[in-house]
Amino acid sequence: MADSQDVRRNLPGVDRLLERPEFRKLRDLVSVPLQSRIIREEIESARKRIEQGGAAPGENQIASHATDRIESFLNSRPHRVINCTGVILHTGLGRASLSESAIEAIVESAGYCDLELDMDSGQRGDRQAHVESLLCWLTGAEAALMVNNNAAALFLVLNALASGKEVIVSRGQLIEIGGSFRLPDIMSRAGAKLVEVGTTNRTRITDFESAISNKTVMLLRAYPSNYRIDGFSESVGIKELAEVAHKNNVLCVDDLGGGLLWDWAKLGLPEEPHVAQSLADGADLVLVSGDKVLGGPQAGIILGRADVVKKLKKSPLARVLRPGKLEVAALAATLTSFLHPSRPAQEIPTWRMFTESLETTRARAELLKSKLAAKSNWQILELRDSPAQAGSGTLPATPLPSIALVCLPENTTAARWSKKLRQTQIPIVSVVQDELVFLNLRTVADSEVELLATQVLQSLE
Length: 461
What we know:
It is a single chain. The longest helix has 20 residues. This protein is of the alpha/beta class. Helix 6 runs antiparallel to helix 15. The chain folds into three domains: 73 residues, no CATH class; 114 residues, Aspartate Aminotransferase, domain 1 (Alpha-Beta Complex), CATH 3.90.1150; 248 residues, Type I PLP-dependent aspartate aminotransferase-like (Major domain) (Aspartate Aminotransferase, domain 2, 3-Layer(aba) Sandwich). The chain is 41% helix and 15% strand. It has 20 helices and 15 strands. The chain has a seven-stranded mixed beta sheet with strand order 2-10-9-8-7-3-6, sandwiched between helices. It has a four-stranded antiparallel beta sheet with strand order 11-12-15-14, covered by helices on one side.
């Protein structure tokens, strides 16, 4: 014990470490008290390791650990990565990649902006006026409301319109999505009473009709975005559901989730339920996300009847869940791209990835391969067909054709190299499959190919 006590006495003091050059350089960025606290914690950690029989760290090691922690604080924010996974709406990577106009709108509104000021009258205005107008024009809705995300939209609708009342849902739509979001739990927290009808694979309109009581206020369709029930199955369309709802003087709400405003089948994509059709079929409210197929910022969007949306706007929760100015600006800019059917695929990265031809993806992959071929000794460097995915519950059963550069340098493994790719200056997120690294080029922009090649070569150093 005496020996360990002597070793502990040899640990450097806080004041001594603070005078080292690496800490003095950081004083304009991190205060001396905070530096002192971090250093003190590192010294205490070293003392405990010694007491447990570990080796005593040197002064340089303690200083290095402390400066690493300070640097981590200085870099505590999301950082850019290059998405080579082939998953277009990758939740772990921030879902939709914003358009240039959305990014410009965020930058412009980051300072003072006319968020809630009417420039003609000089009076306070509505922060969502521009967004609501665009949404109504694009979908045919009478009114619209934007909140934080689609889960918040559903919670607001249930709490403001169905608290203490019954909401009827098909048993096959009692979904759970990422982050353990369960529809029954959300409904319970919102104060609504869930009434399940039908079976997991088959629900008929008569199931809804027989379940309606004097306590029923809403028939809800929760679109099962993360999965599909095939084979011996039956479900109720929103048109039928709306007819029964209105005959019984209750609301019909369609939680579509995805964010598709109008039919995209004309672009060669599979048919998916969309807002304009749902409203035309009689839904009183339709709920969608802003950061999925819409290709905008995280947001929940509620569209539908003006009188019903007005009730939602008056709820105290609407204030709790309202979006910030950056999200409002980004969504408004994103929506302007939908004013012409050809613009989304040209201007919104998500739509470009959904719609571009396989030949375009292949050309991008060939270019990347040509930039890497002569720069290293490769175990394998070849192009392969490798399907991409929409991600985030969109088109769960529909792979998108794509091309990947399958690669692996000599004298390493796929796991080790994929880790090195994630540790480059601009991290590259790849896929390891069959002990090889796949760089899927559908989720890489043309403007990123040169940067991607540079970062790959950096990982080889």
